[in-house]
Structure formats: C-alpha cells, structure tokens
C-alpha cells in the first residue's frame, strides 16, 4: 500500500528512468500530488504494464499540483557520469515545475541538495510513496516515448522494444552496426572479451 504523503502538502516526489541503458537519455520527473490523491492502479512503474503506465500518465499530469520532466542526453552523461546526470535530471525536473516544493522525496540513496529545500532519500521509494511512484511513471513514459521516436531513425537497434537497455538483441546490433550518436560512449557497450583469438 503506497503512502499518500510523507510530511507536507507541497511535497515533490522525484525519480529517474534509463540509468542502466546503453543509449538515449536518463530521464527524471518530479511531481506534487494534491492532498488526498488516490489511484488504485498507481505503483512503482517497474511493476506496471506499459498499458497501465500510459493510462496513468495523463491522469497524473492533469491532477497534479505541478510536475516537471527532464531528459539529460548521452553527451552530457558521458561528460559528468551517470550518477551526476541522474541527479541533474531530477534538479532540472524540479526547476521546471510551476509550483516549487517545500520538501523533496527522492527515490534511491543519492542526491545533492536542491536550492535550500529539505529532502530525504528513500531506497525503493517508488514502492512506498505515491509521489515517487507517480514520478517513476512520468519518467518512464516520457523516456519510452523519446526512445520510440529515435527508433524510427535507427530501427535496427529496436529501441522501441528494448528502450536502449543492454539486451542481447541490442548488443548484437551494436556488434553488427556499431555505435550511433545516441549511444553513451562512456558505457561498456559490449561485455569484455574472455578469450583471445590466437
């Protein structure tokens, strides 16, 4: 059962999607839900089907007090590393909200202070707090939408299906076609070679 509120009416939940991908952005969302908000379907986005996530997205965006979504793209990920890029995406998502929060709930265990607003990191927060679960749904659906768009440019990698994650199919496509402008060059794209061809 998700808790609806931690401590404050303008509490923002924030989460990211795409941290472990080989291609595409890391995407973060932040959202402030109204007091008393309930939805029987809402859960951690990883526990929901794509259909349910897509169903929830317009509901969350319409009923929220404020929300923001931000992509941090592969070039910036390569420059500052994926942890910093994930936190930066959360900060930018918070920046883009029309109503600033006065408390921030963060999924995970790492965050950097945002302005002078108190925050708390909560491991597996997307399965504990409604605002974090809502942020996880927004981050995932916005990122999936972007990956489906760039899939049209490079269909051989099948990003529409694998979303840039390191599936066997994605790695095989990298072996065959090489890297694109959307791949993260700082990530190990293929497993290390275990045998030498002698």
TrEMBL record:
Any one Gene Ontology molecular-function term assigned to this protein's record: manganese ion binding
TM helices/strands, residue ranges: none
Cofactor field: Mg(2+); Mn(2+)
Catalytic activity of the protein: Endonucleolytic cleavage to 5'-phosphomonoester
One BP annotation, GO: DNA replication, removal of RNA primer
Pfam families: RNase_HII (PF01351)
Organism superkingdom: Bacteria
Family in the record: Belongs to the RNase HII family.
The protein's role, per its UniProt record: Endonuclease that specifically degrades the RNA of RNA-DNA hybrids.
Protein name in the entry: Ribonuclease HII
Lineage, opening ranks: Bacteria, Pseudomonadati, Bacteroidota, Flavobacteriia, Flavobacteriales
Name of the encoding gene: rnhB
């Amino acid at each position: 059962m998700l808790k609806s509120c931690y401590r404050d009416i303008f509490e923002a939940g924030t989460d990211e999607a795409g941290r472990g991908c080989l291609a595409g952005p890391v995407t973060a969302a932040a959202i402030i839900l109204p007091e008393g908000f309930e939805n029987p379907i809402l859960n951690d986005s990883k526990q929901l089907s794509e259909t349910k996530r897509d169903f929830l997205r317009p509901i969350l965006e319409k009923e929220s007090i404020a929300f923001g979504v931000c992509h941090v793209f592969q070039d910036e990920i390569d420059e500052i590393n994926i942890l910093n890029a994930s936190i930066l995406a959360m900060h930018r998502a918070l920046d883009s909200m029309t109503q600033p929060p006065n408390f921030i709930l963060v999924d995970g265990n790492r965050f950097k202070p945002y302005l002078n607003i108190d925050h708390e990191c909560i491991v597996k927060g997307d399965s504990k707090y409604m605002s974090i679960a809502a942020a996880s749904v927004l981050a995932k659906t916005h990122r999936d939408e972007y990956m489906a768009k760039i899939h049209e440019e490079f269909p051989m990698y099948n990003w529409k299906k694998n979303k840039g994650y390191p599936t066997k199919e994605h790695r095989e496509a990298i072996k065959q076609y090489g890297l694109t402008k959307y791949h993260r060059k700082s990530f190990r794209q293929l497993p290390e070679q275990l045998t030498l061809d002698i």
